[in-house]
Structures are given as structure tokens and as C-alpha cells.
Design brief:
Layout: H1 13-24, H2 30-36, H3 45-61, H4 79-98
Length: 99
């Protein structure tokens, strides 16, 4: 469990791809790769997620940064138009979920 104020280690996309390719090629096991990562506990849970993402999305799309947060204002709408657009999107989302 995360502790208050805990800093998370971030690994580059290239580092993750390199680690996963070592596992897939049979060069190393997941536990060997986990031991190689500096400052990482010896658990393989993170490595399992990396391998799963690599296999499902492929090398080209794996570990890409996703756009998060509120959607940007499309077509330079006024604030009122943009708010109405967001509400329509939210209502259609809720209708899909409830039906």
C-alpha cells in the first residue's frame, strides 16, 4: 500500500520495452529482470503488467502516454457552448451505461 508522500519511480518507454523483450526472447526470466531494476522490490507484479501491455498493444503502441483530464475545447466554442457539449457527452455516456 502506498504511503503518504511516497514518490513513485518512473521508467522510460525504452527501458520497459527492453525489459519485456528480454523476457519474451527467453534471455531472462521475470524475476531476473525484477532483480536488475534498481530501487525496485523483488516482486514481478509490475513486470507482469508490462509484459501484458506489450503483448496486447504491440511494440508500437505499448507504454505510450495517454491523454488524461478534461477534454480540450474543440472548434473554439464559447464557454456556454463547450459546457453544453460536455453535458451532452455525459448524458449519452450515462444513457449507454443504464441501458
Amino acid at each position: 500500500m502506498a504511503k503518504k508522500g511516497q514518490k513513485y519511480k518512473k521508467y522510460s518507454r525504452e527501458f520497459k520495452i527492453n525489459a519485456v523483450e528480454k523476457i519474451i526472447s527467453g534471455e531472462m526470466t521475470q524475476s531476473q529482470v525484477a532483480r536488475e531494476i534498481p530501487g525496485k522490490p523483488k516482486s514481478t507484479g509490475t513486470i507482469n503488467r508490462w509484459v501484458d501491455e506489450y503483448l496486447t498493444k504491440g511494440k508500437e503502441n505499448a507504454f505510450k502516454q495517454e491523454n488524461r483530464g478534461r477534454k480540450k475545447n474543440p472548434n473554439n466554442m464559447t464557454d456556454a457552448e463547450f459546457e453544453e457539449w460536455i453535458l451532452k457527452k455525459w448524458c449519452s455516456f450515462l444513457e449507454e451505461r443504464l441501458s
